[in-house]
Amino acid sequence: MTAIRIDGEHLAAELRAEVEADTRALEAAGVVPGLATLLVGDDYASAAYERRVRRLSEELGCRYVCEHLPGGVEEAEVLAIVGKLNADPRVSGILVLRPLPSHVDEGHVYRRLDPLKDIEAVHPENAGLLALGQPRFVPSTPASVFWMLDRYVADTGRDPKTFYNGLDLVLVGRSNNVGKPALWLGLARNATVISAHKFTAQAGRLKAHTRAADILVVAAGLPRFVTGDMVKPGAIVIDVGINPEKDAETGRVRMVGDVDIDSVEEVAEAVSPVPGGVGPITDVFLLRNAVHAARLQARLHED
Ligand code: NAD
User: Fold this and answer.
1) Are 296 and 136 in contact, with CB atoms under 8 Å apart?
2) Residue 211: predicted pLDDT
3) Ligand 1 atom with minimal separation from the 45 CA
4) 34-63 confidence digits (pLDDT tens)
5) Which atom, in ligand 1's list, is nearest to the CA of 240?
6) Which residue's alpha carbon is at the smallest distance from atom 31 of ligand 1?
7) 173 CA distance to ligand 1 centroid (A)?
8) Per-residue pLDDT tens over the stretch 157-197
């Protein structure tokens, strides 16, 4: 069996056209969406992400501002900048880029966000709404995973509204920004959801779970970690991992996923590649959330 490779670039282009149309419609109604990013320090991956969303914002006609603070900044200063962005009517959505320096408490920063501008649903109010199945915002990475899955399922002639009912969905990784929110999205689709993590692996139980998965979503940050022998024949495998790897011959850095695609595509029904899988959709989803936030805020002002 050679698995279908799910084309994330193509799906991202489709989503982008939707977001562009939504942005134009809002602009026609006098509302310009605005995205703000907060970058503290000089993390390589975060800075690259910041550049991508800046470019995308400009291309889609969204206002954009980046607050870039030095790594040594006091937590109080970071909180003050969040307060400034909260109060700025031109900013509809705020993304706090991770990692924050260790002396800045992530929880303090997240709790300072205006929940109506918290487009990654990291504020407890939005995280709680998501857990209750009543999301105000769906964080962009898990949203992209399920957007990709739903589209793949529909494109292969099945109904995404019923497809997941009772299927075993295994999530490898339980971070607050990917694994945990994905858990709620899987439950909302009536899947039987299992969250596997570092301790599952340490207990020697990981393979037993991944081999049982009808749908396997991997977000562990470990290059080529999931191999074909860990996958159930006919499973759908979504690779969230983005890991820099230096090419031994050229010395150039390239990105590889958490899934060993060569062995996995021998057993799976479908697999998303890295690069060209979930990543490009995530960027567009962030903008989609900023547009959604602008719409919510405009409605509030109408009331
Ligand atoms: P994280 O470091 O916050 O969490 C990693 C998770 O993996 C933890 O829950 C940990 O328990 C689990 N884990 C670690 N070792 C394990 C093992 N041996 N077996 C099973 N589980 C194990 O990472 P994160 O922020 O969730 O990101 C995970 C990966 O996804 C990274 O490669 C990151 O770059 C990537 N990522 C991609 C996107 C995207 O848009 N495609 C967005 C965010 C993160």
Assistant:
1) yes
2) 98
3) 34
4) 999 999 999 988 999 999 999 999 999 999
5) 41
6) 221
7) 5
8) 999 999 999 999 999 999 999 999 999 999 999 999 999 99
- Give the chain's domains with CATH numbers: 30-117 (3.40.50.10860), 140-280 (3.40.50.720)
Which residue's alpha carbon is at the smallest distance from atom 30 of ligand 1? 241
Tokens of 148: 């990709």
- Ligand 1, atom 15: closest residue by C-alpha: 198
Q: In ligand 1, which atom is closest to the CA atom of 197?
A: 21
| For the CA of 222, the nearest atom of ligand 1 | 32
Please give the distance, rounded to the nearest whole angstrom, from the Cα atom of residue 219 to the centre of ligand 1: 4
